[in-house]
Amino acid sequence: MTNAPLPAAALAELSRIADLELIEKPAELEHFSRDAYDYSPVLRLELQACRADLVVRPLSLEAVSVVAGVCCRYHIPLTLRGAGTGNYGQCVPLRGGVVMLMGALNQVLNIDPATGVVDVQSGCLLRDLDQQLARSGRQLRLLPSTWRTASVGGFLAGGSGGIGSVRWGFLRDPGHLLGMDVVTVEDPPRTLRLQASEAEALNHAYGTNGIITSLKLATAPAIAWQEVCIDCQTWGDAVGLLIRCAAAAVDLHLCTLLESPIVERLPKWCGSSEGQHRLLLLVAADGVSTLERLAEQAGATFRFVGPENLSSGKGLRELTWNHTTLHMRAMDPAWTYLQMLLPKPELTAMETLKQAWGDDLLWHLEVVSQQGVMRLAALPLVRWRDPESLQRLMAECRQLGAVIFNPHVITVEGGGLGVVDGDQVAAKGRHDPSGLLNPGKLAGWSES
Ligand SMILES: Cc1cc2nc3c(=O)[nH]c(=O)nc-3n(C[C@H](O)[C@H](O)[C@H](O)COP(=O)(O)OP(=O)(O)OC[C@H]3O[C@@H](n4cnc5c(N)ncnc54)[C@H](O)[C@@H]3O)c2cc1C
């Protein structure tokens, strides 16, 4: 893929902006043109040649605005980047142009002592935000397992859920996002304050329809989560116990189940597995004894690991969500993965697929709340064979009733429910009428 060179006049304008770092070294252009898309062999092929022509790091809101204006005037594609941990090539500049690093805008602006609602700049790392919230007795409701390195803006624009989804569902559920500040890509750019209903169109839109400079988010009262592991002999027992734990009257932050071959390959900080399937749970202190009782009733082995130590980087949460995939790939990069909501009865569907795919498919489940209803999400490990096998597996999953969120595609719609969201497209029309933001990622816009 060959990019059109940046107009010299545009470069000259950008280099005159105070509070803007320009990054032009080839190795850095390469680095900032990639994210964690290599989990997908399909995307690896598709995206490896994409490269920014210039990377910029604004140190002030004014600089963000001037970059947006220059890109609009010279018709330069503009792709936003938080920490670059996305898995779908979300911040890969398909058409080159400018990649803008949002990480220097990282201030927590306000935590409302009465409601816990936080105003935070988009480049703030989730770890730093969570630490600041803790000082006010609050915590984030939802976190990706990359919470130490990922930015809040990147999570909102590119992520979906994770740790906390067992209780709080997904980022797009009403109630999490309460507003945002946005800079448009126009000449001159506008700075807009969007209320919750307007802001929703930028939620999980891959930065295609506005530059988010700050977010207003709901938070939860802080709970000192306790780590629990429970081992089960059979997969059926493990799934049954997972559902009973999730349905119990206990406060959970995480409710994960891993098939034994996965447990055997994980870092050993959660102990050896002896061929058993393992539940990993984060639970409030008053729920530990209940989980122990449920485990005993199921004939499973209960282990109370202790209070979560967030400074270590070796917590149970770092073994879950797509960190499970990360650890498996560290052992053997031939593993890739899928994401889906399992159909009911979940066990029957999983057994059918297991019979067909054997050890090429290893089950990893996460309990989530989907529109208020408990569901089993799966992020199974899939041994990579070829694109046709992957397509066949997805077709079989869909035939059984699974809803696939395909992590091997680059568009917002392809990775979601496959349908165009008219609000997202309309917001792009309002905030980026020339279609310069992250071009090629919003199929509804490209089609129109
Ligand atoms: C090991 C691993 C585990 C993961 N686990 C999870 C998980 O549990 N849950 C989950 O949802 N995701 C997960 N992810 C994906 C990813 O880490 C998260 O979604 C993360 O929150 C993305 O944040 P980021 O700062 O890295 O965003 P980036 O990758 O930098 O950006 C993501 C998207 O947001 C856009 N964007 C960034 N900043 C802005 C802005 N200011 N305005 C508008 N658009 C912007 C980008 O253009 C891009 O499209 C995981 C990834 C890996 C590699």
* Share in β-strands: 15-25%
Assign an overall shape: globular
What's the alpha carbon Rg, rounded to whole Å? 22 Å
The number of helical elements comes to 17
Spatial separation of the terminal alpha carbons: 24 Å
Query: Structural class, please?
Result: alpha+beta
Layout of secondary structure:
Layout: H1 8-15, E1 20-23, H2 26-31, H3 41-47, E2 54-58, H4 61-73, E3 78-81, E4 98-101, E5 108-111, E6 118-121, H5 126-134, E7 138-139, H6 152-158, H7 165-168, E8 177-183, E9 191-195, H8 196-199, E10 211-217, E11 220-221, E12 226-232, H9 235-247, E13 252-258, H10 260-265, E14 277-283, H11 288-297, E15 301-307, H12 322-331, E16 335-337, E17 340-341, H13 346-357, E18 361-362, E19 364-370, E20 373-378, E21 381-383, H14 387-399, E22 403-404, H15 412-415, H16 422-431, H17 443-447
Parallel strand pairs: 2-4, 3-4
Antiparallel strand pairs: 1-2, 5-6, 6-10, 7-11, 8-9, 8-10, 12-14, 12-15, 13-14, 13-19, 16-21, 17-20, 17-22, 18-21, 19-20
The chain binds flavin-adenine dinucleotide (FAD).
Residues 35-36, 79-87, 90-91, 102, 122, 144-146, 150-151, 153-155, 157-162, 206-207, 211-212, 321-323, 326, 438 line the site of flavin-adenine dinucleotide.
